[in-house]
Amino acid sequence: MTASKTLPLVRDPERLESRLKEIPPEPGVYFMRDSSDRIIYIGKSRKLRSRVRSYFRDPKQLSDRIAMMVRQVADIEFIVTDTEAEALALEANLIKQNQPYFNVLLKDDKKYPYVCITWSEQYPRIFITRNRRQGKKEDKFYGPYTDAHLLRTILRLSKRIFALRQRPQPLFKDRPCLNYDLGRCPGVCQKLISPEEYRKTVQKVAMVFQGRTQELIDVLTAQMQASAEALNFESAARIRDQIAGLKSLNADQKVSLPDDTISRDAIALAADEKHACIQLFQIRAGQLVGRLGFVAEVGAHSYAPLPT
After folding, report:
1. What class does CATH assign to 1-107?
2. 238-270 pLDDT, tens per residue?
């Protein structure tokens, strides 16, 4: 519960320690608020409690920018997620939405990587770039991503799941490389796959970066069943492996909705004799993309216990 014009936590050690104990050791996103209740910093961590506590251990270990931020923190809030990947996606959405003052680097999108798909080319390439200005009008960019290592991992696994071209330039002039023999590449360099078929495969990978992984899994499941019914067991087995790989990548925000294509706002209310707090969780296409919080003082005559 955030109070207006409260002292910075570094000047109230008892309240600081109490607040830190409330933070769980799970993955999630944390918010730093100043004395005017403004969000001044948003971060994510695999272990929320230890990450947030690290800000208050030894100021000498902090950069000047972070040390200045810590001196202004009057309250800390958090959202728990299932995985670190979920926290990463939510962090990026919340930073874009709130534009916290101390998230200087994250506000500068050009410093963070994007995924580019060169739809302008006959055989589209998929690669990581930090420059959105390159490319042609038909090319698509997805991002920015705050965790470059995680992005490289997702792209590498996506290329392996769907057997995309592995090299920017051919290794040999007259034959495909070993990746083709291993089934990791369809032989784009020698045009052993038609542009139409290859673009269909690239479109599947694009769905991953559009956050439509579950939709893609559903499509592939139907294709696998059709292949099995047609006694094309080799194709069914290949699609089965693709589905298994996608499920390992599917770290979308998990919300309990009857239809993940629906966008909704979920409201939660908590109140006591002095304060009422309303939290609005914004769900778009099955993903938790933001949160708004409202705190108000409650008069003695207006308070009534919430129904259970």
Report:
1. alpha beta
2. 888 888 877 766 554 455 455 555 667 788 888
